[in-house]
Amino acid sequence: MKYIFPAVFGLTVYFTIRILLDSVTGMKFWERSWKLNTLEITTSIIMGFFMGWVLRKLFLHFDKTAASQFRYGRLAKELFYVFLVNQLVVNLFMDPLVIFTDDGMQLYDFFDINIIPLLYSIIYYGIFRSSTFLRAYIDNKILLERITNDKLQTELKFLKAQYHPHFLFNALNTIYFQMDEDVANAKKSIEKFSELLRYQLYDQQQQVTMSLEMEYLKNFIELQKTRASEKLKLDMDLDDKLNGQQVYPLLFLPLVENAFKYVGGNYLISVRAAVDGNKIIFSVKNSTQDNIISSKQNGIGLENLRRRLDLLYPGRHTLDIENNGNEYFVAMTLQLQPHEHKN
Fold first, then answer.
1. Do both 137 and 167 map to the same domain?
2. Does the pLDDT of residue 51 top 90, yes or no?
3. What's the CA dihedral at 131, 134, 140, 145 to 10 degrees?
4. Residues 11 and 105 reside in one and the same domain
5. What is the pTM for the complete model shown?
6. Shared-domain flag, residues 245 and 290
7. Residue 1 banded pLDDT, cuts 50, 70, 90
8. Burial of 130 (0-12, 13-18, 19+ CB in 10 A)
9. Count of Cβ atoms closer than 10 Å to residue 339 Cβ
């Protein structure tokens, strides 16, 4: 490309112009003096090398100043400079040959000299710069995906962190009241609390097994039962097949937390978790005292959960909510990928 293409460029420009001129004037260039033809051909080849050298220097300058960013403004700017370089170099080399040979510079000579090399220069530019702009385009796409991914990860961490203050407040409040009534149970609550906190603080890998997530929920429910009303009736059914499936942590917590927070009426809470093929089905139902109380359950916790599901399981989840005034029911379904579905 560096040594052959410029010569081909110069020869292509020369013979194209020569053919067009001969077609218009009826001249046969092979009948002209071989010395004159040799001079024109040699000059055209030298022009091709000089043009290639100038354009490479120009492209190198753009690569250093514009880095690897692909922008249409940069493309337009480069093409403008290609146009300027083409006009200067072509007229510098070709005009003297035309002026002092044959019948001198004619109007059609001027148009041929300025238009034909420009077309070939644009083709040369496209061939020479295609790989550079393709690489820049790919780099830009990768950078955009990385920025988007970092933004989503930051948003996920923020949404996940919003659970912690509410959880800490409720747990500490429970232990505080236990200290006055039952120190032994308060100590057990502290143990449960430390286990829950350890899971939230240290088990921060991308995904966890369902067995770990279910164990976390059991500890959370045990801690909540200590501060719940004696009228509370808890019905919990966790499928034994929920074991090695990989899920993102703390997705089920908001549903259970809401149920304990807003339970009323008959004080019934039902928690169900099952696996059906490649799907995990998790549901929570709690009785409510009236519509005013149950409507509060559609708060920031569920909004955060919806956003996390959209980010973590796009197109692979459902979240259904039913509220009939006496019962509040939420069912969540997660569709697992093949590598996540392990028994």
1. no
2. no
3. -130
4. yes
5. 0.53
6. yes
7. low
8. exposed
9. 8
What is the Cα–Cα distance from 142 to 98, expressed in whole angstroms?
51
Half-sphere exposure of 75 (CA within 13 A, CB side): 13
Structure tokens at 93: 């080399």
Phi, psi dihedral angles at 129 (to 5 degrees): -100, -5
Question: What is the predicted pLDDT for the residue at 293?
Answer: 47
273 neighbors 239 (Cβ within 8 angstroms): yes
At residue 286, the pLDDT reads 92
Residues of the domain holding 336: 162-340
Q: Are residues 113 and 181 in the same domain?
A: no
CA dihedral over 45, 46, 49, 51, signed as positive or negative:
negative
Give, for 93, the enclosing helix (H) or strand (E).
Answer: helix 72-99
The overall average pLDDT reported for the chain is: 78
Q: Each residue of 167-212: pLDDT tens digit?
A: 677 677 777 777 777 777 777 778 777 777 777 665 455 788 899 8
Residue 82: phi and psi, rounded to 5, are -60, -40
How many angstroms separate the first and last alpha carbons of the chain?
A: 58
Structure tokens at 174: 């429970």
pLDDT given for residue 279 in this prediction: 92
22 CB burial (10 A radius; 0-12, 13-18, 19+):
middle
* Total domains present in the chain: 2
How large is the angle between the packed helices 107-161 and 72-99, nearest 10 degrees? 170
- With helix as H, strand as E and coil as C, how does 277-304 read? CCEEEEEEEEECCCHHHHHCCCCHHHHH
Residues 72, 178 within the same domain: no
CATH number for the domain spanning 271: value is 3.30.565.10
CB-neighbour burial class of residue 13 (10 A; exposed 0-12, middle 13-18, buried 19+): buried
